[in-house]
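Database export, one record per block. Field names are fixed; values are copied verbatim from the stored entry.
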Amino acid sequence: MTAATDATYFPQVPATADAVLDGLDPEQREVATALHGPVCVLAGAGTGKTRAITHRIAYGVRAGILPPASVLAVTFTARAAGEMRGRLRQLGAAGVQARTFHSAALRQLQFFWPRAVGGELPRLLDRKGPLVAEAAARCRLKLDRNELRDVTGEVEWSKVTQTVPADYPAAVVKAGREAPRDPAEIGQIYATYEQLKRDRGTIDFEDVLLLTVGVLQDRHDIAEQVRAQYQHFVVDEYQDVSPLQQRLLDLWLGERDTLCVVGDASQTIYSFTGATPDHLLDFRVRHPHATVVKLVRDYRSTPQVVHLANGLLSRARGRAAEHRLELVSQREPDVEPAFTEYADEPAEAEGTARRIRDLIAAGVPASEIAVLFRINAQSEVYEQALADAGVPYQLRGAERFFERPEVREAGVKLRGAARFGGNDTLLDGAAGLPSEVRAVLSDMGWTDQPPAGSGAARDRWESLAALVRLAEDFARARPTATLADLVAELDERAGAQHAPTVEGVTLASLHAAKGLEWDAVFLVGLTEGMLPIHHARTDEQVEEERRLLYVGITRARRRLTLSWSLARSPGGRHSRSASRFLDGLRPGSGRSRYRAAGGQATGGVERGRATGGQAPDRPRRAHRSPARCRVCNRTLTDPGEMKLMRCEDCPSELDEGLYERLRDWRCAQAAVTRQPAYCVFTDKTLMAIAETVPASAEELAVIPGVGRRKLDRFGADVLAICAGEEPGGDATGGRAGGAENSLEK
């Protein structure tokens, strides 16, 4: 169960204000009772920071010190804000506003806009990507999918750091930031994007903050009205505050210091969005009389996991590292972290899936297991491996639970059944709330047993099963609850995005895993070039990658496995190496500062089993020749050029008709497999195929981005298209046989 859903059990509201403090450790109690003046809570991973600050608010409210309507608690995600509201409700402190920065600002902007500016607030853009693409086209610049994402990120960074388009090139240099393309071009796109928004009367999410800041700066009467409403502020994840958010917070506060901030500089992993830990680290400078409380008792992870996390940070450098917290586990010892080396990526995925299947067979719920990776593109091979192993999974960051079609439909049916009560024939014979819910959902096809395999049917069943479990928990906590009460609870949770637990292994990027936890965590793909990512070049960027691994390690409660592979594809050269961050932590990697808790030996390196169950011999490090342009023979270092096997500026022999046919085929494959098109093949790989026009499996296999698994899966279709034939036809079938034979050789 993740941290976001641990309130599935509905605890009783504490009877008194003092009862709110029950169960807090001495440091958490210090936080909860420090209700006056500036307060800074330095809270390590797993130390109960959310518990401490929610109990602080609840204690202040229940003791009559903090009027609930005067408190504004802000955090960075709707999920975290929803969780905070849920906890406050369970502590008897309903009425406190817990919102994201953007949500709080938007609410104020909508209320004050007619008075401050006049008319209705401009329409808020759902996504800025399409408008950025149009702005680039207006500037006669073409952006591929990856460039569009990166340039959009630069626009967002510019706005949260309050950088105007004309200043963007200089700001990039000053920040030591690597622009995805010519800074002057990005500045031009940024300026055109802003003009398009003005022309169409729209604003984006960053504008919400900027405009709120502008209104509060220019209209002192409005600023004073806001300050009269909100007199006490709590900011969670303060290490992630951007300069723009800090400016808004300062305007909310005015001359007051009724502020409590919570954060951990060692978990700063969003600097690419403009976040900076400087506000947290400088808090005592700005507020010399602040109360500072350090939370270092780790209730989440075992001593073995905590020791590894501490060992990783002991090698960190930079300002954030100087303020690192040494965690102390409060749990009983358990198994050592395992370090596993595999021959190639498919073997790593299959080995991970095999271990997960064994854990589930041993009684670990699938929802208590996570596979975490550096970038989302790594998920495909793990999705396939888990599906092949018959293990259900869910992608973190995919469609929100309450926005799923089956959940919406279930809500309508439950609401109808609650309205008609005993007159609803669906409820005939149902006794008790859980039984009523099962009866209603059975009309949607829900059964006690899940459907076989994975896919859409299994996903639908898992959603409905989560609602059934929620009803069971709700009924245990409130035996007299009715169907109408459950519908009201679901409405509360939908508004807070507080989803129930869905059974399934979580697949997530390390960034998306922030704030969550599981019993067993698999950190995969830990190679040089992936972690730290290849484009992390400065010391500061590399240290942020180290902190990202720290966040991943501290997601685990009991079991932790760290793995890497020596090659991308089966039979490929063993040219990869384990991440430098593991040096000194894993056995055989040099002198180690890491010692397991209680003087126990660290977990040994376990070699991943090859297909067929045979343990591979220790591979020899193979020399890898540098990639060279097939046109001018220049050494290639850019990943995009390496995929094309030529310099971007060298003449292209692209068969545009073939390229379009390949794109159409990829689109169809993506629809069938229900995955993004780039997971089939990236644009660069398709361009490389359309330039080289391979005639055999051997020629196709050497194109970067193909690999053994995709060759087996898509090779016959691609070769057929290259030959001018229809994929999946008779000719393709014959060609597929030829491809298979050539692979066997």
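Remark 1: The mean pLDDT is 82.
Remark 2: The longest strand covers residues 556-565.
End of record.
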